[in-house]
Automatic annotation (TrEMBL):
Composition skew (Basic and acidic residues), residue ranges: 54-82
Region (Disordered): 54-96
Protein name in UniProt: TIGR03943 family protein
Organism: Streptomyces osmaniensis
Database matches in NCBIfam families: TIGR03943 family putative permease subunit (TIGR03943)
InterPro entries assigned to the protein according to its UniProt record, in alphabetical order: DUF1980 (IPR015402), DUF1980_C (IPR048447)
Keywords, sorted A to Z: Membrane, Transmembrane, Transmembrane helix
Every DUF1980 domain range: 162-259
Spans traversing the lipid bilayer: 33-51
Length: 262
């Protein structure tokens, strides 16, 4: 009952009363989380009501028989023996019911942690573990970019155009990219974003190498305004990761939805 209540309350906290759920799943899954959390809370309440012990009948007038007194002492002795052995799974309370194993309470810790200390969104560690998935296919002509500079692009769109666009639509354009900072051991740094199809479990990495401008701390969020620097042949490993020459690097706060959608 307590586990159901804690889990339901944690789900409602991150999905109904805040936008923390965006660290784990896409926005479209919010209604399902809210319904799931509410159902778990209702189940906990129902379990509490159904499991409430009935009022014990009043004792009959008169004296207990000697047989009843002996039976009561035997039952108490058996109960004490179980307690001494520490057998939680087979122990009985004075009404003959099972005690819950103490180890079961450990299951409440993950739900309590989610309720009180929601984990952060995936960051540079996850990005560095993700091997880049690139292929020499998909090269073709992309639609024209919107008029005006700078043009706001996701990292995935910038990378696709930089690596596969035979029309070179990025040439001569000023772009604005937002993501968190990752860095190689040699000091090269990137503006990075994680892409999800459903939830954080299927995240993949999109990153753009930044040249010019001092590197902010790892995992800090930045907006980079600059121009594309071509490298390598289209559709090859040499074209990855794409490069942007930074004109302005500005620190920003982490967005409510830290992921891009694949």
């Amino acid at each position: 009952m307590v586990l159901l209540l804690l889990t339901g309350a944690a789900i409602l906290r991150i999905s109904l009363f805040s936008e923390l759920y965006l660290r784990y799943v896409q926005a479209g899954l919010r209604p399902y989380l809210v319904v799931s959390g509410a159902l778990l809370v209702l189940l906990a309440v129902a379990a509490a009501v159904v499991g409430r012990p009935e009022e014990e009948p009043h004792a009959e007038q008169g004296q207990h028989t000697e047989h009843d007194e002996h039976a009561g002492r035997d039952q108490q002795r058996e109960h004490d023996e179980h307690d001494e052995c520490g057998d939680d799974s087979n122990a009985y309370d004075q009404h003959g019911g099972h005690h819950s194993p103490r180890v079961a309470w450990l299951l409440t810790l993950p739900a309590l942690a989610l309720l009180l200390f929601p984990p952060p969104a995936l960051g540079s560690y996850s990005a560095e573990r993700e091997a880049a998935q690139r292929a020499a296919q998909g090269v073709g002509h992309f639609p024209a970019l919107p008029a005006g500079n700078p043009v706001e692009l996701t990292l995935a769109e910038f990378s696709s155009r930089a690596i596969y666009d035979s029309g070179r639509s990025l040439a001569g354009r000023t772009v604005r990219l937002t993501g968190f900072v990752t860095r190689d051991d040699d000091g090269t740094w990137y503006v990075t974003r994680l892409l999800v199809a459903c939830c954080a479990a299927d995240a993949t990495t999109s990153k753009v190498e930044v040249r010019g401008g001092e590197a902010p701390p790892v995992d800090s969020w930045v907006t980079v305004t600059g121009t594309w620097r071509p490298r390598g042949a289209l559709g090859t490993d040499a074209a990855w990761p794409p490069v942007v020459d930074a004109g302005v690097v500005r620190r920003v706060g982490e967005p409510a939805d830290p992921y891009e959608t694949r």
